Amino acid sequence: MARYLRNRVPGGTYFFTVVTDERRDFLTSEMARRCLRKALQVVRRRWPFTLFAISLLPDHLHAVWTLPPGDANYSLRWQKAKELFTRSYLAAGGTEAAPKLSRVRHQERSIWQRRFWEHTCRNDADLKRCVDYLHWNPVKHGLVERVTDWPWSSFHRFVRVGEYPTDWGGKNPCPGFELPEPR
Questions:
Q1: Which contacts of 122-127 are long-range, i.e. CB under 8 A and separated by 24 or more positions?
Q2: Would you say 20 and 77 are in contact if contact means Cβ atoms under 8 Å apart?
């Protein structure tokens, strides 16, 4: 079995990509958004973190979290968030992909890809690049022509506090900054 090495910096700020199983398009549905919001709220109460930025796309999400000082256990938080989401989403009538044999053997649901991608933000410039990428991602994927037209991201909050002008993101704000494609 493969061992995945994760960078763990207590109190660190991390950029995440979390993908649905088989890249199924359902995360932006009203029911999925409600289930995800609730799951993240429950996890944040039990295992605090600051949700710095987020962008929700139909088949994946990007998020930037900052963990409390002395704490680097983002894996537990994602595990619990995925579990809570899956339970509430299926209970509300959501469907899952046809399970593969390995998922049946491990008693896993077919809602999320097993893992997630993480990047430790090294400094303020790296954090800005990650947040810019996250907000520009719906344009990159051809979902909208302008960042401001995508309703399911923290971009609008960043505009309200003066971090971005409303018309920000007319061109790729971070050319050359590409994340590995999750499988």
A1: 127/13, 127/52, 127/64
A2: no
Instruction: Please state, in angstroms and rounded to a whole number, the distance separating the CA atoms of residues 62 and 37.
Output: 14
* pTM higher than the cut 0.90: yes
List average pLDDT for each run of 10 residues in the chain, which is 183 residues long: 76 97 96 98 98 98 98 97 97 88 76 92 96 96 96 98 94 79 52
* Complete DSSP assignment for 137-180: HHHHTTS-SSGGG--SBTHHHHHHTTSS-TT--SS-SSTT--PP
Cα 78 to Cα 141: distance, rounded to the nearest angstrom? 24
Q: CA dist 10 to 40, 51, 52, 70, 73, Å?
A: 20, 16, 16, 5, 8
Tell me if 77 sits within 8 A of 36, measured CB to CB: no
Judge whether 141 and 30 are in contact, CB under 8 Å: no
Counting every residue written for the chain, the total comes to: 183
Could you tell me how far CA 7 lies from the centroid of its own chain?
17
Angle (nearest 5°) at CA 149 between 86 and 126: 75
CA 98 to chain CA centroid, Å, is 23
Predicted confidence at residue 181, as pLDDT, reads 56
What pLDDT is stored for residue 176 in this prediction?
A: 81
Query: Under CATH, to which class is 13-123 assigned?
Result: alpha beta
Do 100 and 33 form a contact (C-beta atoms < 8 A)?
A: no
